[in-house]
Amino acid sequence: MTEQYEDILRLLHEMPPITLEEMTGIKLMNRTDTKFLANKTQLMQVLALAKNDYYVQEIGGKAIAQYRTVYWDSPDYRFYHMHQAGRRPRTKVRVRTYEDSGGLTFLEVKKKDNHGKTKKKRIQVASQEAVFENGGDEFVIKHTNCSLHEFHPCLQNHFHRITLVNRGKTERLTIDFDIDYTNFDTDKQANSDQLVIIELKRDGLVFSPIKEILMQLRIKPHGYSKYVIGSHMTNPALKANMLKVKMREIVKRNNKK
Questions:
Q1: Is the pTM of this model over 0.90?
Q2: What is the number of other CB atoms lying within 10 angstroms of the CB of residue 2?
C-alpha cells in the first residue's frame, strides 16, 4: 500500500460505518446523478470535511472495495463512438465483478436517454468468463436488440471505490480512484494516476452537505466515462475529437496540488 492509500484509509476509519445491508434500504425517489473530477490530495480534504456528516460503507470490514469491469463493444466500436460524440440515446454493455463480495458478477446494459437519464439493467452471471450462461445472450438481445455474439470484450479496468451515505440517508457518494486499464485489442495498458472520480446520487429536493464541501474546495461537475477515457488512453486508432477538452481537464486535475 502507498502512503497516500494509508492516509485515505485513516480518514475513512474516522467515519462511522454502514453495512451493505443497511445501504440497500436507501431509496432515492427523485434521484439526480452528478460527477466531479478531483485528485487524491483533494479527496483527503473532502473526507476530512465530510467525516461528521457521512457514513462509510464497509464490506467484510473493508472501507475501500475493489471492482473489475470488462466492456464489450462491436468490431467497429459502436458504443465508443456514440459516447465520445455525445450522442443520445446511447448504450454500454459491461460485466462487473465485485471482488470483495466473493467475486459476485453481473452482466449489465446501461442506457442514457435523450433527457440525460441513465437506466441500468443487469443479471447475475457465474463469472466474467460465463456471460453466455444463465440467459446472458437473451438478456442482451432484449435490451439492445443485438446478440452478445455481435460484441467482444475490448477493455478491462480495475479500480478502488469508496461509498459514502449522508446521515439523513438522502444521498450516496461513490469515489473511484487507482483505475488501471488493459485493452484486449491493442495489449496496451494505462492508469488514472492521481485522478479521483466522485459521483453524487441524491434526492434533488434535499440539502446536500457534500455539494457545499465540493464548492468550498472548487471541485466542479465534470463528465467522465471509464470506458471512453480508458479506450482513448489505450487505443490510439480510435477517433477522439470530442475528448480533447475532457483530456485537458484530466491532465489539469492530475497536476493540481
A1: yes
A2: 9
